[in-house]
Amino acid sequence: MALSAQRRRTRRLALLARLAATPFRSGARPSRESALDLDKAVAALPPRAREVFVLHDVYGYDHTELAQLLGIAIGTSKAHLHRARCALREVLEP
Fold first, then answer.
1. Sign of the CA dihedral running 27, 43, 56, 15
2. Which of 57, 72, 62 lies closest to 27, judged by CA?
3. Rounded to 5 degrees, what angle do the CA atoms 89, 43, 94 make?
4. Are 74 and 63 within 8 A, CB to CB?
5. Count: domains in the chain
6. Which end of the chain is more exposed for a tag (fewer CB within 10 A), N or C?
7. Side-chain-facing half-sphere of 82: CA atoms under 13 Å
8. 72-91 as b/e: b if 16+ CB within 10 A
9. How far is the CA of 79 from the CAs of 2, 65, 73, 82, 83, in angstroms?
10. CA dist., res. 22 & res. 88, Å (int)
């Protein structure tokens, strides 16, 4: 049991490291300038808010999966997502 938990933790940390190192890209073809602005805005988010935003809005995880994956409460996941979206909206809106 302890070995399984350690393996899950290792996989989770590896995933989070890849997310932190990978710039955000949407499926749409935004202009180069807007894509760079979005990359900068996402990179400027606090680490946990960025993780929740990318995992939820880009990869499609739900809050239950995020809570389990990140070891946080579902409400905390929702709060991080809300903060991330508000921060992005503030930065990206003209």
1. positive
2. 57
3. 30
4. yes
5. 1
6. C
7. 6
8. beeebbeebbebbeebbeee
9. 30, 15, 10, 5, 6
10. 18
80: domain CATH number is 1.10.10.10
Task: Encode the chain (94 residues) as per-residue pLDDT tens digits.
Answer: 566 666 766 766 666 666 566 555 555 454 555 556 778 888 889 999 999 999 998 888 899 999 999 999 999 999 999 999 998 888 877 6
Question: Could you identify the residue written with the tokens 């808010």?
Answer: 49
Query: Structure tokens of 73?
Result: 């409460």
- Give kind and range of the element (H or E) at residue 40: helix 32-43
What b-and-e string marks burial along 31-43, b requiring 16 or more CB atoms within 10 Å of the CB?
A: eeeebeebeebbe
What is the pTM (predicted TM-score) of this model?
Answer: 0.63
CB 61 within 8 A of CB 55: yes
